TrEMBL record:
Keywords: ATP-binding, Kinase, Nucleotide-binding, Serine/threonine-protein kinase, Transferase. GO terms for biological process: intracellular signal transduction. InterPro entries: Kinase-like_dom_sf (IPR011009), Prot_kinase_dom (IPR000719), Protein_kinase_ATP_BS (IPR017441), Ser/Thr_kinase_AS (IPR008271). Residues 62-330 form the Protein kinase domain. ATP binds at residue 91. The keyword ATP-binding applies. It comes from the Eukaryota. GO terms for molecular function: ATP binding; protein serine/threonine kinase activity. It comes from Schmidtea mediterranea (Freshwater planarian flatworm). It holds the Pfam family Pkinase. This is MAP3K-1. Gene3D superfamilies: Phosphorylase Kinase, domain 1, Transferase(Phosphotransferase) domain 1. Belongs to the protein kinase superfamily.
Amino acid sequence: GWESSSDERNEEEEMKRTNAIFRKILAEQTNSMDRKDSLDIESQPPPGLGVFSSEYRSGYEWCQGPLLGTGAFSKCYQGRDVRTGLLMAVKQISISHSSIDKNEEIIKAVKTEVNLMIQLNHPNVLPLLGAMFSPTDNIISMFVRWMPGGSVASLLNQYSAFLEPVTLAYALQTARGLSYIHSNRILHRDLKGANLLLDSSGMRLRISDFGASARLSNGRDSNASDFKGQLLGTVAFMAPEVLRGEEYGRSCDVWSFACCIIEMLTGSQPWRDRNHTNHLALMYTIASAEEPPKLPEQISADLTELLTDCLNRDPKKRPLSSKLESYRVFKHLTS
């Protein structure tokens, strides 16, 4: 038979070393979950910061740093706790709008997000440290762990598409975080690269932004439907049943999970090959297309299997989030 060239052998050795690094990081995360007495200092709220129950004042207990980004009703800053020096990300939501109904809607949405996030504690989910309401300037501040690596989407913009080994390491961490979220009866509804944040090493990932999330009524491990007609999230990552106004549940997050993998491997959001000029056209395509979004070329058969299963048009035939980690494509990272 043919002998392997030295280039092939070198590539194989490099792949083994890469996988060993990711295995070590993933094992550390697993060990931290197993140690009940372990204290993750960076995920603990600073002294005096609670959930709408304490006076944690800007300029006194914490200082506002540079602007990190802006949203429709919010701005995100870096913040620093004065007493401990802990760096945080601070999402500030303005509720001083002309419409009272709009104000109440924003307050209700923020309270929902806070109540969902405050109970979560997992290495692959961004921890909420606390929240404050300032009645003088009508601003709600949410304090979360600082993730200096930025988002998967921002890294794709800076460095272009990821190689499959890196994508798989991120995907496995996303799958673990998603499984944990679902086990706590929470539907994320906005999984995308912009909401997957990385630490300073660029190798440890946490799911963020629960602004579109909702509480599920059904059990810990089910693809049963819970919602109908609520269009929340980012269109390119939405499952067909959501856009068709049908009932949906945890399986819509599994579809979005696969879309995140496509985004990582191509550097673009799914369905980009269809060249849609507006959101309505994209919504129609996703809702009516017989086929899933186009898969990247030259990916492994095992990864194709995972993506094909997660992008099944029938929500009931998609795998549960708790089963994603057991796919063959992740075996080299978990064994």
